[in-house]
Design goal:
Blueprint: E1 9-18, H1 22-29, H2 33-50, H3 54-63, H4 65-78, E2 84-95, H5 103-108
Antiparallel strand pairs: 1-2
Helix pairs in contact: 2-4
Length: 118
């Protein structure tokens, strides 16, 4: 995931929600609750992260404004499915580095390859 200023980040999100009328919500559309909530929450979080810089997100985490923004966005996404989002919060947020290993180039240069065992 990338921020508005191009920093690559990893996020972990907590979503607290309730479904006031389960029979009506699931019966009308026959949707997979877990998958739909997960997919739409990921979409909302990615959209919010992409429209804010890294520093804005860090400041928003400190003053809870990011929680309010995420809650508002996920609430908007999930309302159509009869889901009421109480809170959506980043519980883990960090910048990261992305590395790409070109194995074919390593092989051409005669570099040894290693296999890890767990």
């Amino acid at each position: 995931m990338a921020t508005k200023d191009g920093k690559k980040v990893v996020v972990k999100t907590l979503v607290v929600y309730r479904i006031p009328d389960v029979v009506r919500a699931i019966g009308k559309t026959n949707w997979d609750v877990d998958t739909t909530i997960n997919d739409l929450t990921q979409s909302a979080v990615a959209r919010v992260i992409a429209t804010h810089t890294y520093d804005e997100i860090m400041a928003g985490i400190r003053d809870e404004s990011m929680t309010r923004t995420l809650t508002k966005e996920t609430r908007r996404e999930l309302r159509q499915f009869g889901v009421h989002v109480t809170r959506c919060k980043l519980v883990d947020f960090a910048d990261c580095k992305v590395f790409k290993l070109l194995t074919s180039q390593a092989d051409r240069q005669g570099l040894a390859t290693h296999q890890l065992y767990s």
